[in-house]
Amino acid sequence: MRMQIDILSLFPEMFESPFSHSIVKRAISGGHVHINPINFRKYGIGKHQIVDDTPYGGGAGMLLKPEPIFEALDAIKEERPETKKRIILMDPAGKPFDQAMAEDFAEEEHLVFVCGHYEGYDERIRTLVTDEVSLGDYVLTGGELAAMVMVDATVRLIPGVVGNKSSILEDSHSTGLLEHPHYTRPASYRDLDVPEVLMSGNHGKIEEWRHKESLRRTFERRPDLFKELELSDQEKEWAKEFKQN
Ligand code: SAM
Q1: Which of 117, 155, 162, 190 lies deepest, with the highest CB count within 10 Å?
Q2: For the whole model, what pTM was predicted?
Q3: What is the three-class DSSP state of 170?
Q4: Distance from the CA of 124 to the center of ligand 1, in angstroms?
């Protein structure tokens, strides 16, 4: 099944480069996904295709008017009435985006991202959406960069897009842990040596080392994730060791 992704934006050209390289490009050419940026200005009001207006009650900035977004979504629904749609509003006040959400999106057949601009949205636009999502606790100029990140993180999880499935399953945040350190050749570079165990050929020991280093990295960098883990006896021993270091 090919996933359909529509992106409502006032700056659809912004999406050309990010989706023209590497894995997302291959996902498109391989028929896993169709990505369709739509300039919703074409549903703007009047000769000047106006999409924004001042807020009722006064205040700073301009708001996106409801009509262009309502009509753009009507057109998408008319064009593909058969698909179940997830309509995702880019919003710094939304739920923070994370790997679990990307995994959830990757199972859908049709995603529609709505990219805001200016001061924000007329509140009635929220009645149309299934999800309100934030890229993080900061304010971007518009929703485009947030949508690019979310599309990228989602598309690589569509089955068949990344050849080596285990590389995805072991990624940071897929397991609740950060990923362990990696090394490649040369074995020694500027007095920086690859850990012996990785060159030992002992797969059991290598797996154990990787798991411990994954735990260590999570302990050191993300105590919020670490405290959610249910540790085995061995892992509790390691945790004591990390605390002492
Ligand atoms: N006044 C809004 C507020 O305080 O929540 C911020 C508006 S922002 C300048 C314009 C648009 O950029 C937003 O409507 C949203 O679509 C997008 N945007 C900004 N920051 C974002 C974030 N962290 N995550 C997702 N979208 C964001």
Answers
A1: 155
A2: 0.95
A3: coil
A4: 16
